[in-house]
Design brief:
Layout: H1 3-32, H2 47-78, H3 83-92, H4 98-116, H5 118-131, H6 139-170, H7 175-198, E1 205-207, H8 211-224, E2 231-234, E3 245-248, E4 255-259, H9 260-265, H10 268-283, H11 286-308, H12 312-317, H13 325-340, H14 344-365, H15 368-381, H16 390-396, H17 402-410
Parallel strand pairs: 2-4
Antiparallel strand pairs: 1-2, 3-4
Length: 419
């Protein structure tokens, strides 16, 4: 151990202490407001639905505590506990090349983490989600999904790691710049491939066949100047009762996707308003802005790794006895979140800002009253709490609290034809 060991442990304790404190605040705040529906939602949300949302939120936050404890234990084992060094030694015994053994080391850590966290995922799905009437998955479907996820991790992660390790070993001191370009290209490839090659492995996508709704949506797309590869309905009800809608892909490969559970709940006018909100994210370039921001943070992170990978105290402080490119990379992936936890409120703030902007856009091309009624139904049907703790919201909420969002939309005027 060295000074960096104590810095790391202190940062880990502080980061998780803050998270535990915020979770405790959230649970207490939701409990304190459980017995009455907020005034602005009286008449649209029943007390039973409000209390269900409160109980669901509390259950999820309590599960988050156990997940955090497991994360701490795993991280301490892999680092100062010597886990990475142990697995590196195991792979070294096979006599493979540094790139092959390094890839094996990294994939081992990822897969072990996935397997160790599996019981919590099972509990989340078959106890928490089941208790509140959201789970529609079967044990067979769950295991198929897990197997597919592991296959994708191996199939996509293995070549990427091998290329990055080759760059680290052979390119020189500016390897991190080329590695960043490769990661960005890989990210764009996944964004392009997801709608047509990855998502269909898990769900069935069919073209929207409701002609009235399709006509309304196509008219909205025309007003907004948006072209899409198609309007699809996803069988989200195979696994969950939650409803959602999203855009996926980019360029000519863009898709609009509605969960079938969403279409079962909302009226055509409300679906149009929800889609207008999603279009707002695209037209206000939120996806591009977040990708640029994420790319810059990745570049900074890799530049730091390029320097820190040459420092012996980095390895010895985190329990690694024999430095290597693979151990540097896996250590950085595991440890960096501990030191960046306080950036969460900044990221969450801009995400909430983007939601307001998308709502503003939606109110220009659809009825704000329709978006309000759609959101209220989604809050109710997804059991989203109406009374989150303000500090917890600042750290973790990517969307504005329900009352704030509804109040903002209530100020908007009627629909206009252009922006």
């Amino acid at each position: 151990m060295n000074t960096f060991t104590y810095v790391f442990v202190a940062a880990l304790i502080i980061a998780h202490a803050v998270e535990f404190w915020l979770t405790r605040r959230q649970v207490a705040h939701v409990l304190n407001h459980r017995d009455s529906v907020p005034e602005e939602f009286e008449g649209s949300i029943t007390l039973d639905a409000h209390q269900k949302a409160a109980d669901y939120t509390i259950e999820k936050n309590r599960l988050t505590k156990f997940s955090s404890i497991l994360d701490i234990a795993l991280l301490m084992y892999f680092t100062v506990g010597g886990g990475i060094s142990m697995f590196a030694g195991v792979w070294a015994e096979f006599g493979l090349s540094p790139i092959a053994s390094g890839t094996g080391l990294m994939m081992s850590i990822f897969l072990i983490s996935h397997v160790v966290e599996l019981p919590l995922s099972i509990y989340q799905t078959f106890t928490v989600e089941e208790k509140f009437g959201f789970n529609r998955s079967t044990p067979k479907q769950f295991m198929i999904d897990q197997a597919l996820e592991l296959c994708l991790i191996v199939a996509l992660g293995t070549p990427l790691i091998m290329v990055i390790l080759w760059v680290m070993a052979d390119v020189g001191t500016l390897w991190w710049l080329l590695a960043w370009l490769i990661l960005m290209a890989f990210s764009l490839f996944l964004t392009w491939a997801y709608p047509t090659f990855i998502a269909p492995l898990f769900n069935k996508f069919t073209l929207l066949d409701n002609q009235e709704l399709k006509t309304r949506i196509e008219a909205l797309l025309d007003r907004c100047g948006f072209s899409s590869k198609g309007i699809f309905v996803m069988d989200g009800s195979r696994r969950s009762g939650h409803g959602n809608a999203y855009f996926t892909g980019f360029g000519s490969n863009k898709r609009i996707v509605f969960f079938d559970t969403l279409l079962e709940t909302l009226e055509p006018e409300e679906v149009e308003a929800v889609l207008a909100h999603e279009l707002g994210h695209f037209k206000r370039r939120h996806v591009i802005k977040m990708m640029v921001s994420s790319s810059l943070m990745s570049l900074i992170g890799l530049a730091i790794l390029g320097w820190i990978a040459q420092q012996n105290w980095f390895y010895s402080g985190l329990g690694v006895t024999t430095p290597s490119d693979a151990s540097a990379l896996i250590l950085f992936v595991l440890v960096s979140p501990v030191f960046t936890v306080f950036m969460q409120p900044i990221t969450a703030y801009f995400k909430r800002k983007h939601e307001f902007e998308a709502d503003d856009f939606a109110s220009m091309f659809a009825k704000s009253s329709a978006l309000i009624s759609a959101l209220i139904k989604l809050y109710r049907d997804n059991a989203a709490t109406l009374t989150p703790d303000p500090l917890y919201t600042a750290f973790h909420y990517s969307h504005p609290p329900a009352s704030v969002r509804i109040a903002n939309l209530s100020k908007k005027g009627v629909r206009v034809s252009s922006a």
